[in-house]
Structure formats: structure tokens, C-alpha cells
Amino acid sequence: MSTDSRGLATSLFKALDALSMLSARSEGLAIREVVEGMNLPRSSLIRILDSLIHYGLVERVADKRYRVTVKFREWRMSNGDEELIDSHLDVMKRIAGEIGEMAILGQLQGRMIRHLHYEEPDCRVRVAPPIGHKIPLERMAMGKLALSLRPDLLPAGSPKKLIREIDSAKETGEAWNRGESEEGIIAWGTWLGEPSTSTPMVAVTWPDFRYSDKALAKVRGLLASFGASPRSCLEKIVG
Questions:
Q1: 131-143 pLDDT, tens per residue?
Q2: ∠ at Cα 237 (231, 239), nearest 5°?
Q3: Of 10, 42, 127, 164, which has the most beta carbons under 10 Å away?
Q4: Would you state the torsion angle of the CA atoms of residues 162, 164, 168, 169, taken in this order, to the nearest 10 degrees?
Q5: Residue closest to 91 by CA, chosen among 73, 103, 77
Q6: Domain ranges of the chain
């Protein structure tokens, strides 16, 4: 392996070093201990740790110690896709069966939403699943949710209407795609856990003539019954 570091992302190495330190101490570390262990400026390490918190891999607990999250340990040790699908399959099937519309499971990967799984009902007018399609984040319900936490991925010169939508998604934990990715299709999306860039999302899609506020209320109720209400997730963060 070459010792030339000019082409390497040293900031990534620092973040990985911080994760390695924290994962070795289940009780976590105070910022002073991280500074001493990594021999880096406190301000730089706080930015790194805050970024890892934003990504859902680190948390700051009540005594101001930093520690890795359960999500980090699962991410490191498990087959993430299979477990994500298995853990959310029941609610997706309930949505497809009881609401009569397609439910799509997705997650941010790099600069796109990766569609992991979908469940669809048996009906005459169906919405084509987006598996394999490359759709810009700003034209998707799940993409707008991701952008609410990753504004650095927002295209330069984005219209004010889109900015307002993304601000709303950050506040409510919900986002919409009203015919932006496909004419005649409405999609509503929300988080399946505490909002973070590694948290999976679900989108429910309707042909626009079949959408109703009553149907959306049923979707919200089903998600709440499975502990995936966007409002309850946001309350956990605020609290």
C-alpha cells in the first residue's frame, strides 16, 4: 500500500478513528478524553462528532459523554438490507393490504435514495415501483426528507418553494411528491425511526384520483401502531 496520503480523505480517517475509539468504550468518552486520545483540536473533534451524530452513528448522552449508537453497531455487524426489510415488512404489508396502495422502503445512499423493497396491492390501476430508477432527490418524497438533514445535497439555485418544502419536512418529519417524479402520482413519505441520514424511510404512493386525506390518516395510524409515527420520532429528539 502506498504511503502517499495526498489522494486520501484524511477527514474521513479522523471520523473513522473517532468511531473506533468510541466503539471500544460502551460507556462512551468525554470530549476531553477524545481530544487526548486523538491529539486533535477540540473544535475539530466537536465538528466531527456532531457530523457523526447527524448521521445517527454517535449520540451525546446526559453526562455530556459521546458514545456510538445501537444503529452503528448494527450497521457494522449485520446484513443491513435484509434486517431493514424484515423489521418493516409487516407495516408495509398492512399499508398495501388495508390502504390498497404501494409502500416503498428506502434509504439515503450517497446522493440518491436506494429503494430496498416495496409492497403493492392487487388492484387494476397500479403505480409502477421505482426500483432501479434514478430520480433526483428534490423530486421525491423520501429525497426531500433526506435533504431536510443534508442541505449540502440541495442543488444550487433551488427555488424558494422547494426550500420551504424541505424546511417543512424537517419540522414535521413528512414530505410530499406531487407529480414531480411521475405525472399523476402522489407520494407521501416519512421516517421509520428517529430522523437521521442512516434511518430508513417509507413512501406511500397513490394515483392522484385515488388519493384522499382519509387514506393518509389511515397510513399515519398504521405507522403509529407500529411505533413509526413521525410525530413521536420528532418528540424523542426534542425531548
A1: 656 789 999 999 9
A2: 95
A3: 127
A4: 20
A5: 103
A6: 10-75, 79-238
- Grid cell of 145 as nine digits: 426528507
User: At which residue does the C-alpha cell 424484515 appear?
Assistant: 86
Structure confidence at residue 3 (pLDDT): 42
Model confidence at 6: pLDDT above 80: no
All 3 cell numbers of residue 45?
473533534
10-75 shares its CATH topology with 79-238: no
Residues in the chain: 239
Nearest to 178 by CA among 214, 203, 158, 150: 203
Phi-psi region of 179 (alpha: psi -120 to 50; beta: other; left: phi over 0): left
- 233: part of which helix (H) or strand (E)? helix 230-238
Query: How many C-beta atoms surround the C-beta of residue 200 within 10 A?
Result: 22
pLDDT digits (tens, 9 = 90+) for 167-191: 999 999 999 999 999 999 999 999 9
Q: Which residue has the higher pLDDT, 1 or 115?
A: 115
Average pLDDT over residues 68-97: 85
- Residue 47, sorted as left (phi over 0), alpha (psi -120 to 50) or beta, turns out to be alpha
**CATH 3.30.565.10 at 79-238, yes or no:** no
* Mean residue pLDDT across the chain: 86
Of 2-11, 83-92, 122-131, 140-149, least confident by mean pLDDT is: 2-11
Cα separation of 190 and 227, whole Å?
13
